[in-house]
Specification:
Its main location: nucleus. This protein is mainly alpha-helical and 210 residues long. Among the domains are: 90 residues; 40 residues, Zinc/RING finger domain, C3HC4 (zinc finger) (Herpes Virus-1, 2-Layer Sandwich), CATH 3.30.40.10. It is built from four helices and two strands. It has a two-stranded antiparallel ribbon with strand order 1-2. The two termini are 72 Å apart.
């Protein structure tokens, strides 16, 4: 197409030169015919030029469309990589937090067990000489008396909302900053250990405030 349009423009230039050199010797009919032929050539050249412009615009739009698609795919790929990286970091942080929480709970459990063993040993060493059977039967508590009514060693640590010592099934709060840490199942309305993370009533309220 470029060669055709260039040849056509050259042909128009030649016709214009010949027309200018012979216009005085031409009859009115010949002048009209030559002018009409040049006009037709100009119209054809314009049509070819318009086609070239249209083709150039289509090519530009096609290239621009592919560039925009590549930019979109690249941005989406980078976003996916960023999201994957954030998920891996979050999973790693959660794993580290769970590991620290389990380690802290094991330390607390060992401390509570050793404290309970120490208390039991202390109680055994402080037990008085066994009195006669009659005296023992006189001080047997009734079935209605609960174990919690027994005197508690003031040195034994207390837990839960009830501020009592460790007994029965207990659950630890998953908030590492929880001041109480351990709770009796009945005091927090539990009968079985819940799945996933568990927060005590106080920490739950604090989390909702944030």
């Amino acid at each position: 197409m470029p060669n055709i349009s260039n040849d056509l423009l050259k042909e128009i230039d030649d016709m214009a030169d010949k027309y200018s050199g012979s216009v005085r010797n031409l009859s009115p009919v010949e002048k009209t015919e030559k002018l009409k032929k040049m006009e037709e050539s100009f119209a054809k050249a314009k049509e070819l030029s318009d086609d070239k412009v249209q083709l150039a615009m289509q090519t530009y739009e096609m290239v621009d469309k592919h560039i925009r698609k590549l930019d979109f795919d690249l941005a989406r790929f980078e976003a996916d990589l960023k999201e994957q990286h954030e998920q891996e970091l979050a999973a790693s942080d959660e794993e580290n937090n769970d590991s620290k929480s389990r380690s802290k709970k094991r330390k607390k459990s060992r401390g509570r067990s050793s404290g309970a063993d120490s208390t039991r040993k202390k109680r055994r060493t402080e037990e008085p000489v066994i009195p006669p059977l009659a005296a023992v039967t006189a001080f047997i508590p009734s079935p209605d008396v609960q174990v919690l009514d027994m005197p508690v060693d003031p040195n034994e640590p207390t837990y839960c909302l009830c501020h009592q010592v460790s007994y029965g099934e207990m659950i630890g709060c998953d908030n590492l900053e929880c001041p109480i840490e351990w709770f009796h199942f009945p005091c927090v309305g539990l009968t079985t250990k819940p799945k996933g993370k568990w927060y005590c009533p106080k920490c739950t309220i604090e989390k909702k405030k944030k």
